[in-house]
Amino acid sequence: MSVAQLVVRNAAVYTCDPHREWADGFAVVDGRFQAVDAAVRTGPDTEIIDAGGRMILPGLCDIHIHLGFGGAQQAWELPIAPTDSPAEICAKVAARAAELAPGEWVVGGIVGSAVMDAVATAAALADLDAAAQGHPVLLRDDTQHNRWVNSATLAAMGVEPRTPDPEGGSFVRDAAGRHTGVLREQASRLAETVFVASIADPAARDRVSLRTAAEICNRSGITTVQEAATMAPLLRALARLEGADELTLRVVASTPMREFLESGVTGAELIALSEQYRSPLVHPDFVKVVLDGVPMTRTSALLTPYPGCADSHYCGEILYTLDELVDTLETVVAAGRGAKIHATGDAAARIALDAIAVMRSRHGGGPRFHLAHTEHIAAADTPRFAALDVVADASPFIWYPGIIQDSNAKTLPAGYQDTAWPLRDLLTGGTPVAAGSDWPCAFPLPDPWIGLETMITRQGPGGGDGRTLNGAQALTLPEALLAFTRDSAQAMGLGRLAGSIEPGKSADFIVLNRNLFDIAVTDIHRTRVLRTYFQGREVFSAE
Question: Where is the Amidohydrolase domain (predicted)?
């Protein structure tokens, strides 16, 4: 019997192991769990932890996250709250601009979706220009799909009064045809490209951003993630961090098939390139396919027309035909990859399922497919998830009434909010539900405790304002915990390595300040992580 490097005793260990739900302790040997609730050999160098009865969980998993954008936002950028008004945003921009050298950019977020509607005027652009004091400004919204920029940024992009909209995006203009500085979808990527070109040392910036993101994840109890749009610079930064022994989480990469949030190499070329970066902690096992946009800008692809549009038949934007999607997935399967498919609208979800049905008929059950974000699924399509072995990537944590859902309610057809986020139906029907923050979308931090609580209550944190979003679709605490642990790890293809406390798995675990089963559900969002361990090594301590 090997000597344990670490032994945990006197704990309330919720293992997420279907064969042993609770344990009092465990041992760690060579970075892996051993001897769960069993005798173990110790030595003079064995670290003994008396947990004092505290709750221990497996390291949490996040099935959908953007490490580069989230880390950069925290490390470098101007913090904006989704509730900030246009005037408050301009005041923050002015204060930041006053600190910068000439020509430096003001970059920040998160601008609330409702605010993005309010600033789509030439007058608001003039206010932003005045606040910027000549600096280019780039502000991201709460979906990360859209931007608010000033005239200096439009000029840097080469956008003039008569510049046509880019394919898959738009430069929002007012009724008189004047630019407002609001950019939607692919127009946002063009602004990001110009901004990145202005950075003196983007590689160094990426490393700092990733290190910051890993620290934030560890502080939140997260040790395994699926990066949802992984471009080549991020792969290089991950490799450098791992080489320096500074990567303190496990990353499953999803390489885009087309340019989306960033410009650069995509598709089959990026799939081949990503293999150079495969390592013990970086798993480039998925691609990312974006089928539609987001509801608040009426770019989600729906089965029902959006109300109040000039075209009474307008149902949003679909970015692939069925044949194009089938051809794309054929390339993906041939490369041995899985696919994470962005589908926020029910029409997009249906096309995705139709394409996956073709893949299953051709290739059987091998390839892994995730549908993100499973917010709007037609009732007839819900059973198809299980039949086709599709994972429900439930992200971001917006399955309760709040700013984003209020914005959605203003644009979506009647009845859509009444059936939103059908997680109970999916889970009861045999579909794995895996939870993801989609950070930095919607929230400034990837706080899993907000997601966990609201998945159970379908109300805002602490009960919010008392409203409930489709409460019949709520999950139980044990079910929700699996969505943040074992089921997410299995969905990523890492079920034998992570997601539960079982002998032989990586010793990723967290110590909490409270037992989630002993408190009111509406207090779960106040939970704090005291310690996080990754591969048996402490990577975060609140002390």
Answer: 47-540
Given CA atoms 183, 92, 444, 405 in this order, what sign does their dihedral have? negative
Q: How many Å apart are CA 460 and CA 466, to the nearest integer?
A: 8
pLDDT in tens, 43-76: 999 999 999 999 999 999 999 999 999 999 999 9
Long-range contacts (CB closer than 8 Å, 24 or more residues apart) made by 381-385 = 381/346, 381/349, 381/350, 381/353, 382/422, 382/425, 382/426, 382/429, 382/431, 383/429, 384/353, 384/357, 385/353, 385/426, 385/429, 385/431
CB atoms under 10 Å from CB of 88, counted, come to 13
Q: Which residues of 224-237 are buried (b: 16+ CB within 10 A; e: fewer)?
A: bbbbbbbbbbbbbb
Q: Does domain 62-66+201-526 match CATH 3.80.30.20?
A: no
Closest CA to 63 of 503, 370, 462: 370
pLDDT value of residue 260? 84
Tokens for 469, please give them.
């979003």
State the Cα torsion 391-525-376-414 to the nearest 10°. 170
CATH 3.10.310.70 in the chain, residue ranges: 84-197
Report d(CA 54, CA 518) in Å as an integer: 11
CA dihedral 272, 274, 275, 281 (to 10 degrees): -160
- Mean pLDDT across the chain, nearest whole number? 96
How much of the chain exceeds pLDDT 90, in percent? Answer: 94
pLDDT tens digits along 129-172:
999 999 999 999 988 889 999 999 999 999 999 999 998 899 99
pLDDT of residue 222: 99
User: How many other CB atoms are there within 10 angstroms of residue 172's CB atom?
Assistant: 21
CB 393 within 8 A of CB 431: no
Model confidence pLDDT, tens digit, residues 70-119:
999 999 999 999 999 999 999 999 999 999 999 999 999 999 988 998 99
SS3 assignment, position 65: strand
Tokens of 424: 């109970």
Q: Where are the beta strands (DSSP E) in 3-81?
A: 6-9, 12-17, 20-23, 26-29, 32-34, 47-50, 55-58, 60-65, 78-79
When the candidates are 3.90.380.10, 3.10.310.10, 3.10.310.70, 1.10.357.10, the CATH number that belongs to 84-197 is 3.10.310.70
Collapsing DSSP to helix, strand or coil, 22 comes out as strand
